[in-house]
Write a structure and sequence with these properties.
heterodimer; A: 438 residues; alpha+beta; 6-stranded mixed beta sheet; 9% strand; globular; B: 122 residues; alpha/beta; 5-stranded parallel beta sheet; 5 strands; 41% helix; 20% strand
Chain lengths: 438, 122
């Protein structure tokens, strides 16, 4: 079933049918009225979370707004048929299958979605077990206490007399350590329980995850800052960030940077510049007199939700640690630990101030081709007798937004070695669970 | 004269238990708990052997061992590494950095005493 480009028109028709003002709908879903106006006139693509949010407010199924009644089902069947492994013949016409056996087709689609969700959970849990610093610290604490208990109990269990003073001290130590062990175990269980809250996610515990969760719910677009609000006012209104000082500190830095970028590249004029120049970071940087990293951030802050029209962004510090992640469907970002060394992000880190561009594609199911732009710039003002610290930024642009003139050759990359099935990779640093098992 | 053992470990109750069993076995035991000043403590106390935990505050036991092996007169000092990780790669890393022996937590008191006795050639 062909996709229609009139999603925005359907949104407008539905909103007007309900008698809802444009500003009210925009505020409810967390975008500016100006941006919703662009969407309704089909001048901006819309998909993923934002489409779901608008559909929910308009009391309509997202697929009815986006593509028509049955396209979601057929897309899911087509995706299931294109998966890895041997496939039987006769899978080329999912429309016929859905038409003749709608119930079975819905079941196949639902099971396919369930498989994808379980695969995502396996990847996330494997990533966590391998790299999660909190889990590693918790296990170290428990082993240390167990070691103390074993050594102390070994002394007390030995035959023969033990000086009463020593005996008292070791009994006290044993009591203290057993209490610590109980507390450590309880904390670990609570931590692991938080990883299974039924949402399909694996828990939000680290400050960076708290911030990213808050941003994810907003589609990485902060409408208040677009309308001129102060970062500290937005932060004070963010209930989800009130409990964690570390997350608030990260959020303050993020919002301050966002505000600076929005001031230099206002949404309306930036959108008009995209209409004229395309999603060309170099051209946009020249138009607004901004550096490339700022343009990358600004493009990723447009309310294009994860999905086929989403724009991703990652940043890392000089150690290669990912410090900021805006995910995009078809391009997996590791939650903990290091990413694929082949990413243009790291090529840029090795060559500061040199723009890097490459067409990239990750291995695995649902992989899509993206145009990645990267740049590494000083993270702080340079000074004498101080180490030079850089921050690298990579924009992950869907091919459909990349326009002409893109690099023709595709660079095969991965997410992280643990979940990357590519064999013979010279950059591999550890075996993959997908080829070598757990 | 008793052989002197320097125990570098940050867990107080592990320190107390090891100190007790080694003292009872006839060794003089000194202790130190901070990673960043561990090298200075080794130089100052001139022990006959060192028991060195890998996970220490402020500095890794591996880094301490590497610098120790590069110090004058310290290349042959027996060092027993204690670690919470017993995988092959951890053992190989300890050997590469110059550990004399490697022991995984939790360990038995008898194992500790016999290893120290062996390393001190007694």
């Amino acid at each position: 079933m062909p996709r229609s480009g009139l999603t925005g028109s359907r949104i407008r028709e539905r909103r007007m049918h309900l008698g809802m003002q444009q500003a009210i709908l925009a505020r409810t879903v967390g975008i500016s009225a100006a941006y919703l106006n662009l969407i309704e006139h089909n001048r901006r693509r819309i998909a993923g979370k934002l489409l779901n949010d608008i559909a929910r407010v308009l009391s309509v199924e997202p697929n009815l707004l986006a593509e028509g009644a049955e396209s979601g089902l057929i897309d899911a069947l087509r995706d299931a048929a294109a998966g890895p492994g041997d496939r039987p013949d006769g899978l080329s016409r999912p429309e016929d299958f859905a038409g003749r056996f709608p119930g079975w087709a819905a079941l196949v689609a639902a099971q396919h979605r369930r498989i994808l969700a379980l695969e995502h959970t396996v990847e996330a849990l494997t990533d966590r077990l391998t790299h999660d610093p909190q889990l590693a610290a918790s296990m170290h604490e428990m082993l240390s206490v167990v070691t103390a208990i074993r050594a102390t109990a070994g002394i007390l269990a030995e035959p023969g007399e033990l000086d009463p003073d020593w005996q008292f001290r070791f009994h006290r130590n044993l009591y203290e350590d057993s209490r610590r062990l109980a507390e450590s175990s309880q904390a670990l269980v609570e931590y692991l329980d938080s990883a299974d809250d039924g949402s399909g996610e694996t828990g939000l515990t680290l400050p960076q995850e708290e911030l990213e969760g808050w941003l994810e719910r907003r589609g990485y677009h902060v409408a208040e800052l677009e309308d001129g609000a102060r970062p500290q006012d937005v932060l004070e209104g963010a209930q989800a960030l009130q409990g964690s000082p570390a997350a608030r500190s990260l959020a303050n830095d993020y919002l301050t940077q966002y505000s600076t970028d929005a001031l230099a590249m206002p949404l309306e004029t930036f959108s008009e510049a995209i209409d004229e120049l395309g999603h060309d970071p170099a051209a946009l940087a020249g138009r607004f007199g901004c550096d490339l990293a700022a343009v990358f951030r600004r493009l990723a802050s447009l309310p294009t939700a994860p999905g086929e029209a989403g724009i991703g962004l990652v940043e890392c510090d000089s150690s290669g640690t990912l410090t900021s992640r805006k995910p995009v469907e078809g391009f997996a970002l590791p939650r903990f630990g290091a990413a694929c060394p082949l990413w243009p992000l790291y090529q840029a880190l090795a060559r500061p101030m040199t723009p890097v561009r490459a067409r990239v594609e990750q291995a695995g199911r649902n992989a899509a081709t993206y145009l990645a732009y990267a740049i590494s710039q000083p993270a702080a003002r340079p000074g004498f007798d101080l180490p030079q610290v850089f921050r690298a930024t990579m924009l992950i642009l869907p091919e459909e937004l990349a326009g002409r003139g893109a690099e023709p050759k595709i660079l095969p990359i991965g997410s992280s070695c643990r979940i990357c099935p590519r064999s013979g990779c010279t950059a591999r640093r550890e075996p993959s669970i997908l080829t070598d098992g757990f | 004269m008793s052989k002197r053992v320097l125990l570098i470990e940050d867990e107080p109750n592990i320190i107390e238990a090891i100190r007790f069993v080694l003292s009872r076995a006839g060794y003089a035991v000194d202790t130190h708990s901070d990673g960043s000043s561990a090298l200075e403590a080794i130089r100052a106390k001139s022990p006959d052997m060192v028991i060195l935990d890998v996970m220490l505050p402020n500095r890794s036991g591996y880094d301490i061992l590497r610098d120790l092996r590069e110090s004058d007169g310290m290349a042959a000092l027996p060092v027993l590494m204690l670690t919470a990780r017993g995988q092959k790669k951890d053992r190989e890393m300890a050997e590469r950095y110059g550990a004399s022996r490697f022991m995984t937590k939790p360990f038995s008191n008898a194992e500790m005493v016999s290893t120290v006795t062996e390393l001190l050639g007694q």
